[in-house]
Amino acid sequence: MDQDFIDVKGIQKTAKATREELGRIGIAVLFIVGIMIYATTVMGDGPGGVMLVAAATIGGYMAMNIGANDVANNVGPAVGSQAITLFGAILIAIVFESAGALIAGGDVVGTIKKGIISPDLIGSTDEFVWLMIAALLAAALWLNFATAVGAPVSTTHSIVGGVLGAGIAAGGLGIADWGQVGKIVASWVISPLFGGVIAALFLFTIKRSVNYKRDIIGSAMRVVPILIAIMAWSFGTYLALKGLKNLWKMSFYEAAGLGLIAAVLIYLLVNWRIKKVAKDLPNDKSSVNSLFTIPLIFAAAMLSFAHGANDVANAVGPLAGIADALSTGVISTKASIPLWVMMIGAVGISLGLALFGPRLIRTVGSEITELDKTRAFCIAISAAITVIIASQLGLPVSSTHIAVGGVFGVGFLREYLKRNYAIMIADIREHHMDEHPEEVEAFLTQFEAASISERSIMLRVMKQDKAAIINKSERRDLKKIHRVELVKRKMLFKIAGAWIITVPVSGLLAAMFFFMLRGMLIP
Predict the structure, then answer these.
(1) How many separate domains does the chain show?
(2) Predicted pLDDT of residue 43
(3) In degrees rounded to 5, what are phi and psi of residue 109?
(4) How far apart (Å, rounded) are the C-alpha atoms in residues 293 and 290?
(5) Residue 20 falls inside a structural domain
(6) Quick one: which of 138, 291, 316, 498 could link to 151 by a disulfide (CB 3.0–4.6 Å)?
(7) Which pLDDT tens digit goes with each residue over 194-211?
(8) What's the rounded Cα separation, in Å, for the pair 363 and 23?
């Protein structure tokens, strides 16, 4: 009887999940149908009306997939660290993504992402339209698949792969700028490496200067305001360089100066606030964690705004190019963005995030490694600083790869530190193996309570007696015994594999769609 009850309960749960999934799909379909109806009513009788309606529909589908996959990187760490709820993160992302797209998305957008193909080698306006439709559809389908399997991938790389594949199908291998393609391939390594290293460096700095001190709260009162000021500078500079670039072109020095003003103001405010709050906090690491809650919410909002201003172009750029080519009969590398096109991008991203974004938010926030607020803070600040450094060096980077690389970076650092700590404890026990257990435990208690500099002194004094210190061979064996996996290797391989195949898969799909369109539309 009990088993029958459990089975019924499981069936009901499955049925409920199925209804919810069907409901989400139904809302998405209504959005697509709404675009088709609007586009048909407004543009159906114009030149190339059918193609423009098709392009608008696919552009809306692409925008939803950007929202479902790409936006998770901006809010995932904050949700995983419990600085903000899933509902709150989605609400913040929707508001700031839409604001970024509509306020700072710009009036003109590049139609050929990253200039990876030469428009001069495209035979006709019709071929250009087919190329862009094929690229949009291929990128959208790949993003949809990646979201379904829980793999955060780069939407920029997806559309680049689509444009490259359809471009080669239209004009041959010579149409591609292979130097640009090489830079994009290099970014598969550059983006996560930069993001991971910078995030790990910030986390190690916090551990060494705050968490490993005897007076944790006193150290936090000195260090945390400086870290938050650095975050204010990086986000101020990042927003000025990237998020507002379509409204106001600034040099790096102007943007850095604006960021510095923000940093000084934030430092004064945060320094006063932390001194007021910290005196009532217990002297432990959880107190330090709580100090990063508001900065994380701020970071999620700013990353979402900058993403909306920049990456909405992945959906509306090809669509704007198609609309411009059909209305003027000329192929352009830049095209103005009609308001209806920008609205499709903004609404589509927001809807995709609300309906299908939670899965990827959970993946980035909790399924790769365990995040607390301190680690999430390091990931957020790494994202902004990496983009600033890369833009000044002229290196192509992906915001998705940076954020996920930051998650891996803090996870692998924690693995390294825990393994080393376990080996140090083994050293101590081996050295004191002939002493009474009470003396060993007393030394270990003193060692655990010591700061990192005091621990170094204790170990150095202990090792002056060479009689019972672990040799190199034994240390290698200990590393294997104390191997701690705080990063899920399955997720590492799945995400890395998805990154590597994004451009080739979207390119092959786009080439196939281009040939299909050309075959259907050429008399």
Answers:
(1) 1
(2) 64
(3) -135, 150
(4) 6
(5) no
(6) 498
(7) 999 999 999 999 999 998
(8) 22
- Are residues 242 and 306 in contact, defined by beta-carbon separation less than 8 angstroms? yes
State which residues of the chain have pLDDT below 70.
1-17, 43-47, 105-114, 243, 246, 430-436, 439, 449-451, 459, 463-484, 522-523
pLDDT at 477: 52
Residue 477 falls inside a structural domain:
no
Instruction: Quote the percentage of the chain above a pLDDT of 70.
Output: 84
Residue 60 is predicted with a pLDDT of 93
Confidence (pTM)? 0.86
pLDDT at 471: 55
Answer positive or negative: Cα dihedral of 314, 320, 326, 328: negative
CA separation for the pair 161, 506 (Å, rounded): 5
Residue 119 lies in a domain: yes
How remote is the C-alpha of 219 from its chain's centroid? Answer: 30
- Rounded CA separation 180/113 (Å): 11
Strand partners, 376: none
For 163, the domain range is 44-415+486-521
Is beta strand 334-336 parallel, antiparallel or unpaired with respect to 108-110? Answer: antiparallel
Helical residues (DSSP H) of 175-312, grouped into ranges: 178-206, 216-238, 252-278, 285-290, 293-311
What is the C-alpha to C-alpha distance for residues 299 and 384, in angstroms, rounded to an integer? Answer: 9
The tally of CA atoms less than 13 A away on the side-chain side of residue 90 is: 19
- Rg over alpha carbons for the chain, rounded to the nearest Å, is 26
pLDDT value for 232: 93
DSSP 3-70: HHHHHHHHHHHHHHHHHHHHHHHHHHHHHHHHHHHHHHHHHTTSTTHHHHHHHHHHHHHHHHHHHHHT
